[in-house]
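Convert to structure. Protein one:
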Amino acid sequence: MKHIIIFLLLSMAVICHAQDHLRFLGCPITGDMKTFVDQMKSKGLATAVHRSWFKGMKTKFLNGSFWNFPDCDIVVRQPKKYNNVTSVYIHPHSNFLLLNDLISVLDDKYGQHTVQYPTSDVNAMNYVWNIPEGCVLIYATTTYGQAFDIMYRDYTEVRMLKAYSDAIDDEL
């Protein structure tokens, strides 16, 4: 089964190579970690030192502004088995009362979102924009007021997660 999953993942990478990549701050979410981080630095982000909490990912932590959030932790993510960056995770430190505004802006840019309710947390809602280039997610919670994080996932990571999920379903 592992061989089939690896074959599918490698095949998807070749097939998807010509597809447009999702952009973050105007830069396509692809390429090696150093090049992508250098592009982010040219957009005004600064490197930050943090310990990674993303299992199975190489990460680079940055700090800076995103949209109307002046102070954000921004994590560039690359699966350890890949040579390219596949996603960007944004944690705004001050996001109180801006969720609806951000959703409206993303709806205007990517089309109407869908809402998912995770079964593991009754206080959570995920807002999702699925587009050909990947997906944008907002992980929102109401446990301690209004808090949320944002994830930009390039199609490479979206398809990798889908293939992994399908493989697990097949084993069950």
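Protein two, convert as well:
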Amino acid sequence: MIKYILLSLLLMSFGVSAKELVCSGTVESVSYHGNDKLMVKLSSMNTPVFFCNPNDDWSVPSEPDRVMKPETCKAVFSMFLTARATKERLSRVHFDGDQLPDNCDEFENWKSVFIRYVNY
């Protein structure tokens, strides 16, 4: 019985966790998709990604406890719009989620991410 408890504890400590990726660059596009989702593409990325919903809480399956509220979504969207308009470089955008590639230029089309941090 103790063997099974120890094995269970060991397996729980190595649970599946979401990937993390940090990208940087200028904002090439900020978009609204008809299903109430917002998208962003940095110069270091090959395609835009969904990052929030301005009308509803946003989370990705591998990060169910992390939620971006609509107010935060609108603030981040505004930051991206400002960076796009001023051509400012974002030094760090931290993405989390299970739909992340290994590199910023390897995103698949129509993927959803959780943005944990944005820095000019």
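DSSP finds two helices and five strands in the chain. Residues 2-16 have pLDDT under 50 and may be disordered.
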